[in-house]
Fold these 2 entries.
Entry 1:
Amino acid sequence: MPAKAQPPSVLALAAALALLGWPLLFPVAPLYYQVFGMACLYATLALAWNLYALSGALSLGHAAFFGLGAYGSALLSHYFQWSPLLTIVLGALASVAFGVLWGLFFRRLRGVYLGLASLAAVEIPKVIIDNWDSLTYGSMGIMGLERLPVLSLGAWEAALGLDLKAQYYLLLILVLAAALFSKLTMESRWGWALRALRENETAATAIGIRANRERAKALLGSAYLTGVCGGLYVHILGLIEPALVFNLHVSALPLIFSLFGGRTWFFGPVLGALILYPLEQLVLQPLFPMVHAGIYGVVIILTILFFPQGISVWKKAT
Amino acid sequence: MEKGDLKNSLEVQRLSKRFGEHKVLQDISFSLPEGEVLGIIGPNGAGKTTLFNIIAGWISPSEGKVVWRGKDITGWPPDRRCREGLARTFQIPQVFPEMTALENVRLGAWFGQDSPPGESQATERAHNLLEIVGLTDKKHTPARELSLMQQRLLELARALATEPQILLVDEIAAGLSLKAVNRLTELIVRLRGQGLTLLLTDHLLNLVVPVSDRLLALDQGKIIAAGPPEALMRDPRVESAYLGTGEAAGEEG
């Protein structure tokens, strides 16, 4: 038994079933497909961010991985006309390459110093891409990126680019797979090594855990998955520009969703994204069109003050 | 590399450490044969903890070597030393605060070797070790809720779970009551009886003296005396180092 009271996995399963099933009841609800699809994408992003955070490293610079994955995919798609599904998978390797540099240069940084360095690190790829006009079209970006393709299997067809319901299911499957991976990771020997590093790196080193190696694996896995999210994002929108993907918002949201939902429960980051993003988009935006995004600031302050472990483990805090 | 005539032992060869101008350790050499218990004593600031940390791999020496079973391990990081059989504990206990006592010890069993045991085997070993150190009833308590004494015992169990050939124990009695120290002494005597090689440091003598085969007295970064505990305790140099009077204090002058 873990020391902290965590919700049972059956709750996550129930949430997954609800997410799979509700479109059957509401066959025509494009806005909801779109918003919940995006919530699934952000939930995947939060899981990716949290994989690195499991080792105790709180990054404020995941927009770098997001943007590089997005540009990697967009450029491959633009210059070679490969299918976006292929370019997304390959393009995210650019994020991994940046992750290697990150790992080398930030190896010794911890806590707030790592946070500040990672925040600044986003500027490096952004400035390069912003100015390399001949390759990336600079700050103008690329319009008319190829949309996600139509998948067909016999009579069955899923237009991932145009049919919002099909797109929603694609993103839902992605987040459920990522959540399952996260659960298996946290229960594995490697997951325990990450937890040990998070709780006490000195003690972890003293009992033989290879701190740098285990953390680097988490970083690179996190970078790759974040890059995939970036690629999906720009092919869903159909356009890319540096300010869109190398954006503080992109770094902050996964952190907010993870802290709110709970970082130590595998489904916590998903829960955070699935509650907060739709709340912001569907409830607050119509009510307060100018300041709806302010919810994130308010939520993060309230979370830190009242549920420092996140809402999924809040009972323990009382 | 020097020949290692005592194959299965730790050898410290001409170790020195400077922090800037300050010489913390000067030309320290000794060896620790298998199965022996060596106590390093000395007043606060004598360099015990620095020496200890160099042997455990947390600080690198300015000069000299640490040789372990004939291999020069001076450049090895601490996690590798642990996996190869040198485990340590800390003066201020370093536990995984949110994990239970059982989980803490199990991690030692799980990561302390290059060929790790399976999860159930690691758990079983953790149960046994908690029993040995007397923490069975705290099995499911998070480590942060344990007392100082209990955290020391937990750390000891976790270090033993890595199956060390030599255990380095830093100031285990610091801050504990006499009763607690007596309990620890008993435990260490028991471990010694099982053939474990031990290196202990302490500035208080109640624990180190009764359990050590040999003592090494440090003062101001140098070895001032070495030998069996009874002889060393009567050594005037040791006495003056502890009391801070007489020749030892005058020498540095």
Entry 2:
Amino acid sequence: MEPIIQTQKLSHIYSAGTPFERGALVEVDFTAYRGEYLGLIGRTGSGKSTLIQHLNGLLKPTGGKVLFEGKDIWANKETTRQTRFQVGLVFQYPEYQLFEETVYRDIAFGPKNMGLDGDEIDRRVRQAARFVGLGDDMLQQSPFALSGGQKRRVAIAGVIAMEPKVLILDEPTAGLDPVGVEQILGNIRDYQQAHNATIILVSHSMEEVARTVDRLVVVHDGHIPFQGTPREVFQHGGSLEDMGLGVPQMTRVFHRLRAMGVDIDPSVYTVSQAKEAVLNALAKKGAV
Amino acid sequence: MALRDITLGQYFPGRTILHRMDPRTKLLLTILYITALFLARWVVSYAVLIVVLAVMAAVSKVGLKAIVRGMKPVVVIILITALLNLFYTPGREIWRWGFLHITAEGVQTAIFMVFRILLLITCTFLLTYTTSPILLTDGLERLLGPLKKIRVPVHELAMIMSIALRFIPTLIEETDKIMSAQTARGADFDSGNLIQRAKALIPLLVPLFISAFRRADELAVAMECRCYHGGEGRTRLRVLKFQFFDCLALFLGAALVALIVALRRFGL
């Protein structure tokens, strides 16, 4: 697979030279590949927010490099600015950044800053609105008149409208009801498939990440202790729990079964996988 | 953007004598010190005042570095004051160039002025360095308590002040966040002419105001839920109490003023 964003020995120290000095990231080597759905998990304060703000040039590394498509994003001012359009970042609770008079104009803010012409902006705004399931009739409303879930979608559309090659979302489902969560995750999946985009989903919920992503990166204390497919990562169940992360309930049940002496594959994390594992185990038992 | 690096109130937690002193004592001591400072007339008095402040700084473990950093914002004011005094004090002329002239008296006043401002700022800096903003407003409320008799809303003012202080870091954090979010959408806050820059602030200010109002609303509800209805009959978790040490400190403060007054008599 072809890497799209890489960090090389990326370090970030906050408030260097004061009593509050604190290393948020320590020589982190991170890679995201083109078109993949990547999950980034870690507790509050683990450094995951600091990491994602480096990926689109909002924070400048105090050590190391960030490469986008092989080029240092801090090479010059223009590269940094262009990277921000190529790497879209949706912050936590993005609805609090809405400011325009109409939904349409708020979504158009990013594309306008890119210097696109009117027709292209219009196309992108309408397409982005469709991706997040906002009807055409909503585009002329004030964003402040919408419900919480709808506001969130307007904000996400505002980033999608820049058509970034990499879309990073920080806890995009926080505070939504289960239906809203499914819708947003579906919208993100649609965008990934339509544009062959790289998605980086930041979360602290193992359950959510486990069933959506192809690959997982665990951030802890400014380092990346584990990465790989969810199956690989969840093998480290014990260490994950020590980091305050825990594994999906299904994995925990199977780890317990294994500890009780049942011969069963413990690397499952969804209900359907669990069903398969149980059937396999029963078949084995029947064969004996 | 390094908004998070701004320090406000500059309170540094600690356990020194000065940290533990009653905030009212510290407020009164500051007032006494400033009074003494303005009564000081000549080198001896200033020397006494400098020594006193140096001892207090050492006791509270404030580094020289921190004091110097606290001076930064007022450097310009100090310079202007010094220059004005230098050039505009009448007296015996010692240097002249065109319309500019410096007098011996001018040099003297300028030097004393600079010291006076430096000491004044260091002294108040010590106060805010060793007292948390909450304790400071508490102390202020208690000190101004008697004004309630003449219907000054002391409690309300103190409450407004503590809420404002409490929310400054929150708002800074919020500003930082919204700024990052808009920058991620290509907003540019640092280039362009004045009008462009002012326009660029709209995407920052609108969400900031909305969230400030939302927070105010939430806070009001939360306070009502806890039955807040003004200062009447309110009890406190931390009751301020004067200790023996506070009395001693106030006595020493008064003694300092007396000493400076005496020195002034002798023209020192």
